[in-house]
Amino acid sequence: MLDFVYYPVSAVLRLWHTAFAAVLGPADAAAWILAVVFLVATFRAVLFLPFLRQARNQAAMKRLQPEVRAIQRKFDGDKRRQSVEIRKLHTAHGVGLFVGCLPALGQGLVFLGLFHVLRSFDRTRTVGHLPFRTTSAPMTPEQNALTPNYFLDASDVRSFLQAKIFGAPLSATLTGTPTVAVLGVAATLMVIAAVATHITARASIARQDRTARQVPFMNTVMLWVFPAAAVLGGAVLPIAILLYWVSNNAWTLGQQHIVYRRLDTEAAVLEQRAAEKRRAAAPKPGAKPVRRRSPGRG
């Protein structure tokens, strides 16, 4: 259904695994761990410019809040006129209402693609390739070991199924009868992912305009519900997906720090230019105000 996502994800995963396996050896689990981490880096690097545009868009909307409130006061009681004028204001300053959709959509597709590809390494269970689908005819272990996984060949499938991190298979989940190793690795990754999600949300909320109308419910969801989902969802996700989740959150934290510092620098430059224009337009001390002659006077 989403082959246009699954094939690129599997291709990038195979590319990185091949590169690291050439150094570490094809049987080394670290090659698969690093392949997942660098797959995150690859796709997040592709989405960096859209994220930067989204952050600049949000910063512009924050700067325009005083003018938005002035429009709301001027056309109080006329919601239609308010919407028209605010839309004109946003258009004049290059603000787009749907700019933030692309990074979120891209990350969502990558997550679904990676989830599908990693789950497709083990097709011996009744759980199907998609998160919400089951199959009544799973493969036998022998069939699974001889069946390629999109751009990953059968040898890659066998290598992944044998890969372990601290004794826990990368394909293992907490469902069923997990070993102590699986429990320890999965629980650690779940907690790290939850903490990173909370810190990321806190940093994002700190950038909000305190004078603008906010939705406290959404902030609560970001701060607490999403981290809780990382813990609850981790119970049914393969360890390889949890590695992706942690890597993705770590990238987000670093990216936010870099982008927000850059935006703060740009805002300081804009404020300095605006102050210089105000000083240039202000009358010099002791100068007499220039009066325009009325039309018709000689």
Automatic annotation (TrEMBL):
Domain Membrane insertase YidC/Oxa/ALB C-terminal: 32-261
Pfam families: 60KD_IMP
The entry's keywords: Cell membrane, Chaperone, Membrane, Protein transport, Transmembrane, Transmembrane helix, Transport
Region ranges (Disordered): 274-298
Protein localization: Cell membrane; Membrane
Keyword ATP-binding carried by entry: no
Membrane topology: Multi-pass membrane protein
Transmembrane residue ranges: 29-52, 95-118, 180-201, 221-246
Top-rank lineage group of the source organism: Bacteria
Disulfide bond listed as a keyword: no
Positions with biased composition (Basic residues): 289-298
Role played: Required for the insertion and/or proper folding and/or complex formation of integral membrane proteins into the membrane. Involved in integration of membrane proteins that insert both dependently and independently of the Sec translocase complex, as well as at least some lipoproteins. Aids folding of multispanning membrane proteins.
Similarity comment text for this entry: Belongs to the OXA1/ALB3/YidC family. Type 1 subfamily.
Known partners and oligomeric status: Interacts with the Sec translocase complex via SecD. Specifically interacts with transmembrane segments of nascent integral membrane proteins during membrane integration.
Name of the molecule in the record: Membrane protein insertase YidC
